[in-house]
Amino acid sequence: MQRVPRYALTGALLALAIAPLSACSPAAVPDPRPAAEALAGALATNDFSAVHVTGTGAADAATLLGTALEAFKDIPRTTTLLSVSMDPEPVDAKQPSATAVLKTVWDIDSTAKDWEYETTARLSFDAEADAWAVPFTPEMSVPGLETGQYVAYKTTKAARGEIRGADNAALVSNRAVVRIGINKPEVPGGKLEDSAMKLAKLVDIDPAVYAARVRAAGDKAFVEAIVLRDDFERTVTNEAVEAIPGTLVKPDVLPLAPTRSFARPILGVVGEATAEIVDQSKGTIKPGTLVGLSGVQAQYQKELAGSNGYTISTYSTDRKPVEKLFESPAVDGANLQLTMDLEYQDLAQKMVDGAGGTAALVAIRPSDGAVLAAASGPADAGLNTAMLGKFAPGSTFKVITALAMLRGGKTPTSTVKCPATTTVDGKSFKNYNGYPSAALGTIPLSEAIAQSCNTVFVNASTSMKAAQLTDAAGALGLAAEAATGAASFLGSVPSTSTGTELAANAIGQGVVEASALGMATVAASVAAGKTVSPHLVADPAPKAGTAPAKPLTAIEAKALKSMMAEVVDHGTLKDLRTLRPAVFGKSGTAEYDSERNAHAWVIAAQGDLAVAAFVKDGSGGAQTAGPLVKGFLTGLPK
C-alpha cells in the first residue's frame, strides 16, 4: 500500500473538521438588524407582510394583535429598534439566534405623558430559507400579553375647575340637574311617537325634531330632551313627566351659576362639544365631552377642564383585569378667579331686569379696577351688552371733553359762553329740550357740566384737535386697550375727526362709542385720581393694557370730581343728592335716529365704587338711568 505523506493527511482531516462549521459560522449568517427593523415596523403598523413569521403566519399575527389592541386602533404609536445583538448561547446550537430590544410609545392623549415601554423579541436564523425568522408571541407588542388576552384603557375624568368671585364665593360650581328624556326600552308598543311628541311639548322644544331624534336612536337608547336644574318642578311638574309612557328623569351634576340668568353672557355655559369644536381640537376633545361653549367658560376651557387620566390593563377573555400596565392620574382643572361680587352682581341684574329692553349696569372698584358687577338686560338674549356694547355715550362724554379743556388751560371756574344754539361748519347744535334758561349766557365751566350745556362743548371743539379728545379719553381709561381678562370693549374715540363730526363727538354723539364698562371706568378714574384699567379676571392675571399717552393726574381728577359733584348738588342728577356717602356723577342722553329715540346714561361714584347705567331706549339719562344707579347704590349690602 502506498504510503500517504503525513502533511497531506493532516490537511485533509483539518478540512473535514472545518467544513461542517463553516456553513453556520457567524461570518456566513446575515446581519439580523434589517429583520429586527422590519419587526419594529410591523409592530407599529400591525402589518407583518415584510416579516418572516414562524409559529403562526403573518396574517394570523396581524389578526391576533389587531383583536388584542382593538381599543387602541386609532391611537398613534411608534415602535423603534433600540438594539439587536447575536445571542452568545442560542437555544438551538444548530440555529443562531439574536435578541432585539424594542421601544413602543403610544400617544394616548394631548398631554406630554405617553404610555411607553420596552419589549424584547428573539429572532432565529432559518438556514433553509436563508433568512432571519421571528417566532411570534404577543408579548413582543405589549409586555406580558398572552394569546387570548386583550388590552384596554379606562378614562378617569378630571374635575372641572370652578369659577369663583370676590371673597372666593362660588359663581359657578357643580349643581344638581336632571336629564329628562325618552327611555326607548320602556315605551309601550306603538307609543313611541306619541310619547316623544308629548314630552317635547311639555318641555317646550320642537316636537317634530325631537321625535325624529327618538326614532333614529337605537332600540335601547335614552334620548335626552332637556336638562333642567333639580328644582325643575317649578317649570315642569314631576307628575306631568311621569304621565308620559317611557319617560325617564336621570339625576346628574353640571357646572352652573346660582341662577340661569346670573352673569350668563360673561360666565358662559358648559355643554357637549359641538362638531366644530371637536374638529378644531385635532383629537384632543372627543364627541360628548363637556366643554365651555361661551363666555369665560370657553375662553378658559383648557385651564378649567384640566386633563383626564387613564389606566391601561390587560384583560382575560371573560373581561376580567389581569395586570395593570400603566396609569396616568387625572389632573383636575384649576379654578378661575374673578373679581365679580355675588351680591353686587345679583343686585345689578335686578336693576337692569326692571329697566326693560336693552340695558346694562357695571360697577367697578376704583382703587384697584376690579369689576364687581356687569349685568346685561334680559332683552339682550344672552349678549354681553355690559362689557361689549358699543353705543354713543351722550353727555357723559362731556367729562372727557372737560378734561381736554382743562388741559387747554381752563379751570372749573373759567367762564364759558352757553348760547341756546351754535353753528359749526353750517350745522346747527342746540341744548336739550328743557335746558334751564337761567344757565344760558356766560357761566362757569363747572355749571356747564352741572346743567350739561351742549353749546359750550361744541364751541370748545372748534379750538381743539381730535387727538386731544382721544388723549383725554385714554387718560380716563376709555380708549385704552381692554385688559379685563375677558371679552371686553371700553370705547372708541377717533383721532382724525374734524368739523361737525368733532363737534358732535365733543357731546358724546358723532362717531364716538363706549360700553357701560368703559363709562364706569371713566367714573372710576376720576374717583381714583389716576387712570384705571378695569379687570374682571383675577387669576390668571390678565395682560396689562396699553398705557395712555398722557395719564390722568390727581390735580385733573380733583377738578373733574368737583364739577361732577355739582351735577348732583344742583344739576341734572340732583335726585342723588340725599345719598350718603356723597355721590358725584354725570348724566347723558344720546339721540341715535331721526325720530329722536335716545340712549340714557348715568355715571356716578360713591366712595370706592364707580357705576355706569345704560338703557338703550330712554326718555333721558337722569330720568331713565338715574333710578337704576340710585336703586343700586341704596340696595347694596351695608
From TrEMBL:
Keywords: Cell cycle, Cell division, Membrane, Signal. Pfam families: PBP_dimer (PF03717), Transpeptidase (PF00905). Residues 1-23 form the signal peptide. It is found in: Membrane. Residues 360-629 form the Penicillin-binding protein transpeptidase domain. It comes from the Bacteria. One of its GO terms (cellular component) is plasma membrane. Residues 156-316 form the Penicillin-binding protein dimerisation domain. Its main location: membrane. GO terms for biological process: cell division; cell wall organization. Coiled coil: none annotated. InterPro entries: Beta-lactam/transpept, Beta-lactam/transpept-like, PBP_dimer, PBP_dimer_sf, PCN-bd_Tpept. Gene3D superfamilies: DD-peptidase/beta-lactamase superfamily, Penicillin-binding protein 2a (Domain 2). GO terms for molecular function: penicillin binding; peptidoglycan L,D-transpeptidase activity. Belongs to the transpeptidase family. This is Cell division protein FtsI/penicillin-binding protein 2.
